[in-house]
Specification:
Chain A: This is Fe-S cluster assembly protein SufD. Chain A: Belongs to the iron-sulfur cluster assembly SufBD family. Chain A: It comes from Myroides pelagicus. The complex is a heterodimer of chains A (438) and B (249). In chain A, the strands form 2 sheets. In chain A, strands 1, 4, 5, 7, 8, 10, 12, 14, 16, 18 and 20 form an 11-stranded mixed beta sheet that branches. Chain A is globular. In chain A, strand 2 and strand 3 form a beta hairpin. Chain A is built from 11 helices and 21 strands. The longest helix of chain B has 15 residues. The two termini of chain B are 32 Å apart. Chain B has 249 residues and is of the alpha/beta class. Chain B has one domain: Rossmann fold, CATH 3.40.50. At the A-B interface, helix 8 and helix 9 of A face helix 2, strand 6, strand 7 and helix 3 of B.
């Protein structure tokens, strides 16, 4: 059976399993299912998927309703921030891992989505926000909407500053059957509130996984939200990340995406500016090799005047890796004084590596400042010789140059232990044991 | 310390060095002078192991060991230092971070432990003072946005940190005003000892007023055509390179 049909025929048993859900959610699910049924999985015929094919992934058999597995803290401690007190929501194969989680807070409401839907107080928020930012025509988002059963619910009330970072960790463990999971996150940052969130996806099993995750973030007036996405560094993992962000007046949202592997990674990152004096920042570091594929598809929709957006993506490709960057900046005709900036720099370490980079500017206002730039290059031979002349061996010199290349993104990570973790991940990715952060 | 025997080197099949012979002993300073295009920078690059050049014939021997196929970093670990004519800008790597990495990688290659952080800081402070370098300067990205003089001073700072056996200063005086020239030359003179050697590559004589050579060699069309004492530099300054050209051709 084709995967699409499998999902459709699985809906009824899935619904029976999560019986007792509120009617409002059921209606949303059915709409999602209908859209997915009409559209199916995206193909390369669609402009937005021109360079990224899901074909080979979809041919596999997946368990689309995997069961809970228990793992010890010791086994997974490397996937958490070190020496940093955090709130934790941990999911294994899409199911909440209670013993690894720690989300009790006096400051914010942090709950597993399944619990939030059963709670009177959060239910009213869900009715107001859930599925409201998403592109309802997007088939993968619709598929998630139909089947999402678990994820993170985060609500930060007016003027609350969350005292420690929130870690959302999604682990896959399957060693035999391939697994398809669909987490769903909702983050509401109230007026003047502040929060830092780290979302990590990690396959620790050996079987293939597809994660089709949807995250909605609402940041109200003057809210600050730093959101970090740390994506798989193993080969047997595929990730489709659909993130939708709606910002109010004078709010600032910054999303960093770190893509260090996986077989296929697609990031659909959408910002909608619905107020004035908004700052939206999108940054990314991609380091891949072999036949890995990472596709960043960004949209910043400037719908109101006097807002800014900053995009800065740094990517390094080795072997036969393929990278795609498609960055769309839309400026509505009323969005005067928009300042939109986009930069995408790439290093190709191999003749067989490929990068497709495309800025897409749609500007309907006449008093705006929008700039974009992209570069594709190799490591500078002169710089390599210079560093080696000072005694730094070739591999280390290369690693140091590449780390330096990512500096503009690294330097804006606001959680020191996360920056250290990423620096170490980059070092191991580049095959060196160097302390970059000295 | 250094022996160069019948060295020939090419870049993209064009022969630049056409049989260089040179011997440098510990404790000596040698100056290599010559007109543009004579092969001065090629010689320094080849000694340092720049892979853009191909050695087609001859030998470079450092303390009895042929450098032949050694990579640039291996030569550096054996004590070869090249002060670049055009130091490369490396955004995102601070001067301090770069030096810590370079020193620790060299120590690693020699089977030594990393230098303790406190020793490193002390050394950086001491050498920065020698070159009259401000502390703030050390946290800036390597060579990025540095003036010509700052770049050269930073090169000699790195030389002071790495304490090479053989230092080659390639056109270190270019881009320096008179004060910077004095600071740089003073630094070099302080670093000189009976156990190390320095090759100064220069187009002009003025640096040699400060760093006084034991020998002066004139390079012309890929060969050393004249060797003398420090007075040869003055003679060259007075008569110009045409004098060499006409006396050779």
């Amino acid at each position: 059976m084709e995967l699409k049909d499998k999902f459709i025929t699985s809906y009824a048993p899935f619904e029976a399993q999560i019986i007792g859900e509120v009617d409002a959610l059921r209606k949303i699910r059915l709409e999602g299912l209908k859209t997915f049924e009409a559209k199916g999985f995206p193909t390369k015929k669609e402009e937005a998927w021109k360079y990224t094919s899901l074909n080979s992934l979809l041919k596999k058999e997946y368990n689309i309703l995997p069961a809970a597995v228990s793992i010890s803290k010791e086994e997974v401690k490397e996937f958490f921030l070190k020496d940093t007190d955090t709130y934790k929501l941990v999911f294994i194969n899409g199911v909440l891992a209670v013993e690894l989680s720690d989300y009790t807070s006096d400051i914010a409401t942090i709950l597993p989505m399944s619990v939030a839907f059963k709670n009177e107080e959060t239910l009213s928020l869900l009715n107001e926000y859930y599925n409201q930012t998403v592109n309802k025509d997007d088939s993968l988002t619709a598929l998630n909407t139909a089947f999402a059963a678990e994820g993170a619910f985060i609500y930060v009330g007016k003027s609350k500053v969350v005292d420690k970072p929130i870690e959302l960790v999604y682990l896959s463990t399957s060693t035999e059957e391939a697994v398809f999971t669909q987490p769903r996150n909702l983050v509401i940052v109230g007026e003047n509130a502040q929060v830092k969130i780290v979302e990590r996806h990690q396959n620790i099993g050996t079987a293939d996984t597809i994660t089709n995750v949807v995250t909605e973030i609402y940041s109200e007036k003057h809210a600050l939200c730093d959101y970090y996405k740390l994506q798989n560094d193993v080969a047997a993992a595929n990730l489709i990340d659909n993130t939708y962000i709606k910002q109010g007046d004078s709010s600032r949202v910054c999303v960093h995406t770190f893509s260090f592997g996986g077989k296929l990674t697609r990031n659909n990152l959408n910002f909608y500016q619905e107020g004035e004096h908004i700052d939206s920042t999108l940054k990314g570091i991609t380091i891949i090799g072999n036949k890995q594929h990472v596709d960043h598809y960004t949209l910043v929709s400037h719908n109101q005047p006097n807002c800014e957006s900053h995009q800065n993506y740094k990517s390094i490709f080795d072997d036969s890796a393929v990278g795609v960057f498609n960055g769309k900046i839309y400026v509505d005709k009323i969005a005067q004084k928009t300042d939109g900036f986009q930069q995408n720099n790439n290093i190709l370490l191999s003749d067989k590596a490929t990068v497709y980079t495309k800025p897409q500017l749609e500007i309907f206002a006449d008093d705006v400042k929008c700039s974009h730039g992209c570069t594709i290059g190799q490591l500078d031979d002169e710089a390599m010789f210079y560093m080696r002349q000072r005694g730094i061996p070739q591999r280390e010199a290369k690693a140091l140059l590449m780390y330096a290349f990512t500096e503009e993104v690294m330097s804006s990570i606001s959680i020191p232990s996360l920056r250290l973790m990423i620096a170490n991940l980059i070092a191991s990715k580049l095959g060196v044991s160097m302390d970059f952060e000295i | 310390m250094l022996q160069i025997k019948n060295l020939h080197a090419s870049v993209e099949d064009k022969e630049i060095l056409k049989g260089i012979n040179l011997e440098v002993k510990a404790g000596e300073i040698h100056a290599i002078m010559g007109p543009n295009g004579a092969g001065k920078s090629t010689l320094s690059s080849v000694i340092a192991g720049n892979e853009a050049f191909e050695v087609t014939e001859g030998e470079i021997i450092l303390e009895g060991e042929e450098l032949g196929e050694l990579a640039p970093e291996e030569r550096a670990h054996k004590g070869v230092f090249l002060s670049f004519q055009y130091p490369v800008e490396i955004p995102g790597v601070s001067v301090t971070n770069f030096m810590k990495t370079a020193i620790n990688e060299s120590r690693k290659a020699q089977g030594l432990e990393e230098m303790p952080a406190s020793d490193m800081l002390k050394k950086i402070k001491e050498k920065a003072e020698l070159l009259e370098i401000d502390r703030k300067f050390l946290s800036r990205s390597l060579n990025e946005g540095f003036s010509g003089g700052e770049k050269k001073r930073n090169e000699i700072f790195q030389m002071a940190m790495l304490e090479p056996k053989l230092a080659i200063l390639d056109e270190t005086d270019s881009g320096l005003d008179i004060d910077a020239l004095r600071i740089v030359a003073n630094g070099v003179n302080k670093l000189k000892s009976k156990d190390n050697a320095i090759i100064v590559i220069t187009h002009y004589q003025r640096l040699l007023d400060y760093i006084v050579p034991d020998f002066v060699h004139v390079l012309h069309d890929g060969k050393i055509v004249k060797t003398g004492g420090k007075e040869l530099a003055l003679e060259l300054e007075e008569k110009g390179y045409d004098w060499i050209k006409s006396s050779v051709e």
